[in-house]
Amino acid sequence: MSEKIIDGVAIGKEIREEIKARVSALKERGCTPGLAVILVGENQASHTYVRNKQKSSTEVGMKSELVNLPASVTEDELLSHINKLNNDDSIHGILVQLPLPDHIDENRIILAIDPKKDVDGFHPINVGKMMIGQRSFLSCTPYGIIKLLERTNTPIKGKHAVIVGRSNIVGKPMGQLLLQRDATVTYCHSQTVDLPSYTKQADILIVAIGRTKFIGEEHVKDGAVVIDVGMNRDENGKLCGDVDFEAVKNKTTAITPVPGGVGPMTITMLLKNTLQSAEEAVAESDK
Ligand code: GUN
Fold first, then answer.
1. Ligand 1 pocket check: which of 97, 168, 265 to mutate, most ligand atoms within 8 Å of Cβ?
2. Cβ–Cβ contacts within 10 Å for residue 90, how many?
3. C-beta separation of 100 from 109 below 8 A
4. Could you state, in order of their start, the residue ranges of all structural domains in the chain?
5. Alpha-carbon distance 154 to 39, whole Å?
6. pLDDT tens for residues 35-84?
7. How do residues 146-192 score in pLDDT, each as one tens digit?
8. Is 98 in the pocket of ligand 1 (CB under 6 A)?
9. Ligand 1 centre and the CA of 97: distance in Å?
């Protein structure tokens, strides 16, 4: 792969090897990090994501537990499963795969997860701590993007980072993490007037909008670093991002492909958060 293509597969693998070594060290101290995933209903994409999360967690030596519930499960039943996992010392990370069926209030479910086991980093306690720079679980996709930038020695300090997309899971936390690393941050979104006038100023352009090949050559400054969070299908059913990779790549200093860029980092950071939780539980029990 050319040097300017940011290889998320290779960087993810490197980090997972480091996680594996730390999992082994914890196991020698009698603690096997445990990740529980709650999956509700029959959404095929969710089933695939969850299978991958389970496979990756066992590959690094973690215990993986799946709670598979029917779409008809009530909110109270789901809450009681979460409560049980909150009180289970062999479980260090709890993840409720989203989306949930319409009759379940996602916010109430996220609030029920013990913040110490919220390895998705979705609980308001973790979001709030992240905002004020305290140690917390970071949302996996933006955390993974920071690792991609760090491991490719991409300068962040003093750079202008433009983020297209303002979701709670990616866009908003992404801006905060870059701000903490001394970037100047601009947020753009669906209501931004004259989007290219902002994106063309970006030293680092991060796109998370879920629109196939939306970002073209006219949006990108020469020499920019472009990070594509999109995971879409084109008219031929082929996986592609929010950025028109072929149109943009020659203008960039570095760019993530889809697939093989940001995607592999998201699961990797979920494992890193689960490891962090287990290490903190062991440190707490040593006190
Ligand atoms: N659904 C799609 N992405 C995610 C994720 O990162 N975490 C959870 N819990 N659900 C998702």
1. 97
2. 13
3. yes
4. 30-115, 140-263
5. 37
6. 999 999 999 999 999 999 999 999 999 999 999 999 999 999 999 999 99
7. 999 999 999 999 999 999 999 999 999 999 999 999 999 999 999 99
8. yes
9. 5
